Structure formats: C-alpha cells, structure tokens
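re the bet — no i am not wrong, look at it urself. input seq straight from the record:
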Amino acid sequence: MTKIIVVLGLLFFQWSFAQENTDVILKKAYQEANTHNKNVLVVFHASWCKWCKTMENNMNLPEVKPIFDKNFVIAYIDVQEIGDKKSLENPGGQEMITQYKGENAGLPFWLILDPKGNLITDSFDSNGDNLGSPATPEEVEAFLTKLEKSTKLSVEEQQIIQKAFEKK
C-alpha cells in the first residue's frame, strides 16, 4: 500500500510540473484577445537562448510593457530545449513552429495572430531571415513595421519601442 501511495505521489508531482500544452496556451490567449480586442503575439523561445531573454527583457521594460500589454496577448512557447531541459518544452510547440516554417530560423521566433488564430505576420524579414530579437536599427524598423500590421502604434509608442530594442 505504501508503494502505491509513493508511486501515485510521484506521478502527481511529475504531472503538476508538466508543461502546458501549446493548444491550451493558445486557446486561453485567443479567448483573452477576443475579449479585449487584441491580437496574439506568440514567442517561441528556449531557456538557453540569450536572444530570447533579451527579447523578453525588452518587452518587459517598464516603459515598453504597457504598450505590448495594451495591444497584444503574449503567449510564450518553449521549444528546442537541450538535454535535461527537454521537459521545459510545451507539447505541440515544435509542431507549431514547424507549421510556420520557423524550425530552422533560430530563436526567438515569433508570430502575430488574430484572435481566431489567423497569421497576420511573422518574424521573417523581407529577405526571409528571422528578425528574432531585433537589435540593429534596420531590424527594429522592420519589427515596428510588422507591429504596425497588427495594431496602431502612436509615434511616441514607436519611439519608445525603438529606443528599448536598439542595441547600444
């Protein structure tokens, strides 16, 4: 009896820390986006990815976060983890990034989707390269152009994002 309780306890412990399925994450994001008249910014990232951390940090700066929060529901999907970090991946994430041709693009890779899940734009620039976490003036300009496809940013909001993202 004790063994059964221990096994059940371990299974529950493992289950409680399992990563959420990508479909569940997106369903919640679409519902929120629909309710608040926003689009969904899906960011594929990994724990080892320096540029992913840079993108997330830039988006969470006190002057930038309100702009993104006003315009987007942000959904992070963990993919392409290595070794013992594989358990951090969201089930279905790799399939989704592959669906949008981002599996070999590098991370972060991002999509902007409407509340019904239709693609508005992705992180590929006009040359087919992944903008990832934009840092150069040209990358940030392309990023702002893509944001404009999905929302109306004021000139002031664009300048705030530009200042935050351009690599110093």
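see?? The first helix runs from residue 2 to 16. told u. also Residues 25 and 75 are 7 Å apart (CA to CA). so pay up
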